[in-house]
Write a structure and sequence with these properties.
By secondary structure, the protein is mainly alpha-helical. The protein contains 5 helices and no strands. About 10% of the residues are buried.
Length: about 130
């Protein structure tokens, strides 16, 4: 069990707890309540995973294989590529729909997201092209 994982899990847990409590006391608005609850769950899951890794040798071996196997790396990279393609298509369609509905602000946000993703793609492409 890595000490770093336990520390990060505890940090997420405490941060989520603080945000949730402050939101319940109406110091923060309901957005922070949702954010706090999400961070609280993330912290608990990370701590439980660290505990399970420390207790089960078979689970630890299974995780190590998943982290080092080339097939899993390929599938993970392919999934990121598909997610990126789908994000661009959905945002582009959203921009068209929002424009047709007269929602100019949402249209601009969707169009900006598409442009940002394309700029990030090209920057990443040229950086990786030089590296490899």
């Amino acid at each position: 069990m890595k000490k770093k994982d336990i520390i990060f899990g505890a940090i997420w847990l405490l941060l989520g707890l603080v945000l949730t409590v402050l939101s319940c006391l109406e110091t923060l608005d309901e957005f922070w309540s949702g954010m706090g609850s999400a961070l609280l769950v993330i912290g608990v899951v990370r701590l439980l995973r660290s505990y399970r890794l420390s207790r089960s040798e078979t689970y630890r071996e299974k995780r190590e294989v998943a982290e080092t196997d080339e097939r899993f790396h390929f599938i993970r990279n392919k999934a990121w590529a598909w997610a990126g393609y789908l994000f661009i298509i959905i945002c582009a369609l959203g921009a068209i729909v929002f424009r047709l509905l007269g929602q100019d602000l949402l249209c601009i946000a969707s169009s900006g997201a598409v442009c940002l993703m394309l700029v990030l793609f090209w920057v990443s492409f040229f950086v990786l092209k030089k590296k490899y």
